[in-house]
């Protein structure tokens, strides 16, 4: 195991490489346990590096077979080789060729980094530092090379041979059972974008013609028998390719674009040049196997990886500190694409939900870090919600601040100026400073300051003066390594509405005309006062419309204000937010009461507002997908986050459960009507409108089942039996899971039997059971770990069952600490074989300090137990150390 060296890597220490590698020829002869890799490198001293420096190539668990320099075996005295390094103390100071032969054991590679086997295929994962597990190399993103890859394998075992770029040659090796293929990628790229795939795979083919007429062959490779599940991914790919042309003027640049779906993958997918490798969860879908959410996930991830071709591949990162340069920007682009293809407000709500659920807790806990980190021990642990999601929010704010035309011009300039290079955040921002004529120095603080800012809004209406004074303030709490936080540049989209929902024109001497016209005020200092004039009666403020900045909000809106917003705000996001805020206030009060031994009170106004949305949804006056969002209560995690400290998940559960029950009982007839009228289309279509109707129907079923167990169960049974798609079938199963007993167990067993051959469907079944809020769940999870479909070596299975369990607020956070102990046990079991996944699971404990004291001490005990082990991977050591610091 590669354990931590303890030496952090710092942004401040960046130096250009001392050598460059212009061209790479890889000759890979594939065998399960003894693959031979011959790498021929065209190397030269880097004029920007240190003259005469040693050449230190990276390795990771490598076995060197032979090494030649300019065609001659290298004198053993001239180099030193270990599994982690290959050092030439005095390399030539003119261009030279190094030929390095290594031997690998792909079948024994459990880390899923480098060359490994998934099912019966060979595949690679090189980001961030996996290429060094294939051959010795300058494995850093600022070393850009052209690649020619020759693959050789057994014809029967691996009839398909794929690598980056265009296919140049292929053929049989006469007199043997083997064949070969040669792929050439003319675009210079960093080593993390290298990929190869070989195996007995089926594929579907299509064709895309770019705006300028280049014909591109598209292929999606899957396990045999799964071809019919790849159609939606192909459709998503073609729409993504068109969108990047239309929205950014960016065309595809090779003759081939291939995607391969594999079942063992550490993350979602990987943007290797011309050969994207995907977790099959983000490729495979049929109405009977995938939910609407799965379809949306496929569309988003296909788009994300495709968009990387320009934001990531053509322009890559100078170093891994700049990860958000490609990830935040590409998430922004895929979110925008999905918003365009579906409903923009609903997509925004889903993205903000995700940001708050994943990134806000990260930013509020011991793992908080800058969007652009400045120090790391293990780069794998920085593929985070902060780099990805908050990174995307920063781009979104930039666009809002400088306006769409300057944003597009800045992107054009960025592509023009940095194409073919490895760039930095400074390079990127410089383009927008230029096209907008704006100084972005202060804006850049978003990249270098961890923590979620808290926005405070206080307003005072002066009837005599017909004016409203709004005081805005920002503050970011100190984090471990940053005591003092500077003011951020925060775009605050806002509006004022009257009691009937009419929009009140913004007029003020304290704001720029452009701010008043766009409705986006800029808060660039700790506080700002703006007095709006010409306000005839007390208005209701709609603040942070569209969630215009990744901030927490403390406002002085009354519940009456929120009710007005929930009905009338023309900003759909804030209509949804108003319902969430009302429910959150109610649930926080209820949880407090329960903790104090009192009965929770349910607010009649909220119950009525909820009913009003049901009515509008029934009448078709609001979009079904939006209604489904407005009708789902804040999650237990949302409430816990709002509580901030001394969290008691049991009290939160009881509060939420009783509100759900009350809503379900009060509105049972309306919910039943929705369930009847939005149901069961004869023909399934995955489009957004149809998905929205199903989402509304399922939200109604769930709420009804929470209020009227009997009626809910009957409807769920009917839906389960009659559904022609997984979305409805799985929602019915989830509704049945609300009530313990034989009916639930039967339904679960039948579901498992029906889908025994489908691991991706069984993952849903694992998650569902792991999330049951009953004390028997711990034992159930343990039992499921022995289920024949479960495997510790498959990341999707582990994430479903164990990741699902650690998201179970009451059962993971059991007061006796048994949930934490189970997680710790699994992390330690998994660490030696797959440290990346082990570290990610462990981060489920990051919010431990916000818990009430008893749970805190149990969680700390579990963390300390892990920290006390001597043999930990760098990945787990890094997380556990930061969690305890
Ligand atoms: N670059 C990939 C993406 O965002 C992320 C990724 C895929 C990754 N596999 C990985 C990162 C393995 C680290 C390790 O699409
Ligand atoms: Zn990405």
CATH architectural arrangement of the domain at 555-754: Alpha Horseshoe
CATH topology of the domain at 555-754: Zincin-like fold
Report the top-level CATH class of the domain at 555-754: Mainly Alpha
Give the averaged pLDDT, no decimals: 97
CATH H-level superfamily title of the domain at 555-754: Peptidase M1, alanyl aminopeptidase, C-terminal domain
SSE-based structural type: alpha+beta
The amount of beta strand, in percent, is: 15-25%
Bound molecules: tryptophan, zinc ion
Describe the structure.
The chain has a domain at 555-754: Zincin-like fold. 41% of the residues lie in helices and 20% in strands. The protein is built from 28 helices and 33 strands. The strands form nine sheets. It has an eight-stranded mixed sheet, with no helix packed on it. Strands 17-18-19-21-20 form a five-stranded mixed sheet, covered by helices on one side. It has a four-stranded antiparallel sheet with strand order 10-11-16-13, with no helix packed on it. A hairpin with a 2-residue loop joins β5 and β6 (72-73). It is globular. Bound molecules: tryptophan (TRP) and zinc ion.
Topology:
Layout: E1 9-10, E2 19-29, E3 35-45, E4 55-58, E5 63-69, E6 72-73, E7 79-82, E8 85-88, E9 96-104, E10 114-118, E11 121-125, E12 145-154, E13 160-163, E14 166-172, E15 178-189, E16 196-199, E17 202-209, E18 215-222, H1 231-248, E19 256-262, E20 269-270, E21 275-279, H2 292-307, E22 316-317, H3 323-341, H4 344-364, E23 375-376, H5 385-402, H6 404-418, E24 422-423, H7 425-436, H8 445-448, E25 454-462, E26 467-475, E27 490-493, E28 495-497, E29 503-504, H9 513-518, E30 520-523, E31 527-533, E32 540-542, E33 552-554, H10 559-568, H11 572-595, H12 604-618, H13 624-631, H14 636-643, H15 649-666, H16 668-677, H17 688-707, H18 709-722, H19 726-736, H20 742-754, H21 759-770, H22 777-784, H23 795-806, H24 809-812, H25 818-830, H26 835-842, H27 853-867, H28 874-884
Parallel strand pairs: 2-12, 18-19, 19-21, 22-24, 25-33
Antiparallel strand pairs: 1-23, 2-3, 3-9, 4-8, 5-6, 5-9, 7-8, 10-11, 11-16, 12-15, 13-16, 14-15, 17-18, 20-21, 25-26, 26-31, 27-30, 28-29, 28-32
Helix pairs in contact: 1-2, 2-3, 3-4, 3-5, 4-5, 5-6, 6-7, 10-11, 11-13, 11-15, 12-13, 12-16, 13-17, 15-17, 16-17, 17-18, 17-19, 18-19, 21-23, 25-26, 25-27, 26-28, 27-28
